[in-house]
Amino acid sequence: MKAFSGFVSTISIAGALALATTLGAVSPADAFLQGDGKGKAERDCYVGLNGYSEEDLSAINKKGTKRGIVCTDCDPACDLDGVNTPNGSCTFSVGACVNQPLAGCTPIVRKKLKTKIKSKAGKFEFNFTFPSDDSSACSGFVDFPVPLKGKNQTKTGKGKVTLIATKPKDKDVFQFRCQPQLEGVACPVLTTTTTSTTTTTLPACARFDFTTITGTSNCGAAGLLTPPDPPFSGELRDGSDVKLSDLGLSCLYIGGGAAVNVPPGATPDGATSSFDATRPCNMSPLNLVPSDGSAVGSCTNGPNTNKVCINDLSLSPLPACTENIDCTPIDANSGACVPEANCFFGPPLPIANGGLSTCVINAIEEGAGGSLVPATGEANLKMPLSSQVYLTGNNNSPCPKCVAGTCETGADIGDSCVGVGSQTVTQDCKPDGDFVGAIPVNLDPLTTGSSAAVAPDGFFCPGQTALGAFGLQDTRVITQSGTPAGDVSGGSVQSGIVASVFCIPPTGNILIDGSADLPGPGSTSLPGTFELIPLS
Which residue from 45, 118, 149, 480 puts its CA 20 to 30 A from 298's CA? Predict the structure, then answer.
């Protein structure tokens, strides 16, 4: 079962279009439950509950005329608060989906979606970007607590989720009930049967580790004048649905149709990002939150509140600042004064481009997180980054490498280091090039499903000035496809792909905005291994 959070407000399709299809994740439901059965069958696919199916429904009154989802306090199969003793509440996990494939129902572009989610614990909100067309999409999952009633918490508590799609209308009401655990009855223990005679209890999960692996060896040239080499993860198409170019696996592509100067970069392999998880390893989904990590470079926490200058990485400690003009050399538009990073998304990213070669440090700008379905390896991750760009001009080694345990070049030349992956780049070896700006890259979600952006007029993002994407002006569709890793609930290490299509706002730096054609779209895919680490 899953998680959702409700709100008492209206989201309009116009608002989503204002974000230029911001590229809300297009994804299938884990399971799709269509309301109370009172609506018209031809509208059943418009909106429904993610993570639940008909099998989860039970009669909730004597007549059996109302159907809903019932849970007993501390039953780990449905009460997801992680407490294995009665605590007077059931925490459900809820998500919403639109335009799911159902026989006899044709998906449409809706005008509005209204949602109400409430119980005695309060009202709950979630953000959901509509697709701009009639494609399928699902929100993330949010916890929805339903407390027991009565002075001694001995009576069944009630909660309700209402979803209303309008023009045309499809209204679905979902009842949630939390009933007390019987006195003297122990709370169930979540188990999984591995053979006909052996039952194994699954422990709580301490952590989920995602580690990047190698993708394509060639992401293509600037402006995709020469295409990438396989394997591929996505493609660009024109307004007639003709493929213009493939997108290489593990590559980062940025910019609009005039982005012909900066080539795509390959994400280094061997980098681990850790997320904390506290629910049983086969609970679905696991909520993932920022982690201190298991090793250097694997943490996913956000930055400190204090700010530092990042335009000269040879300084230690980095100078404190409150605004850009506090940094030397003074450049009010450089974006050199930033919150001090605690964690980074992998090692620096080298982008070879002759005398314009750059090294990009991806600092985690907000705490990372997401959700994971252990039984299938389906994941939706959130990774808000500040991609800090340094012009090094070193085509052979845009970012300093760690060679024989020592930084070969850069601001830390001669210092000891530990290289990461086959490229042997590392946060231990910082670049000494000129700082040219920071690009906000919000990878939300990085999904094992499909991510897409459609722009019939060629403008994918707010403020975009050049038609198209990644140097190809005829681009009207950008697609990326992730791949679920498969069952990781038993502790096995499986391989999957997370992918994202997103918008990049302007940096305010004329050099970087002009050469990368920002604001504009961005797209990436990350192949990697998925591993759930149980509590010891």
Answer: 480
Q: Are residues 164 and 277 located together in one domain of the fold? A: no
For residues 135 and 356, what is the distance between their CA atoms, to the nearest angstrom? 40
Using CA atoms, how far residue 36 sits from 94, 124, 159, 162, 163, in Å, is 16, 21, 15, 10, 11
Which of 135-144, 145-154, 476-485 ranks highest by mean pLDDT?
476-485
**Tokens 């608002």, residue?**
15
107 and 247 share one domain: no
Tell me if the bond preceding 231 is cis, omega within 30° of 0.
yes
Check whether residue 262 and residue 362 sit in a common domain.
yes
Residue 192 pLDDT: 43
Q: How many domains does the chain have?
A: 2
Three-class SS of residue 448? coil
The closest of 181, 128, 188 to 154, measured between CA atoms, is 181
Interatomic CA distance for residues 52 and 67, integer angstroms:
13
The Cα-based distances of 441 to 298, 388, 502, 504 in angstroms read 19, 10, 8, 6
The reported pLDDT for the residue numbered 467 is 97
Q: What is the pLDDT of residues 201-227, one digit of tens each?
A: 445 567 899 999 999 999 999 999 999
Does residue 252 share a domain with residue 170? Answer: no
pTM exceeds 0.70, yes or no: no
Q: What is the mean pLDDT of residues 292-314?
A: 89
- Asked whether residue 414 is domain-assigned, the answer is yes
Provide the pLDDT for residue 23: 29
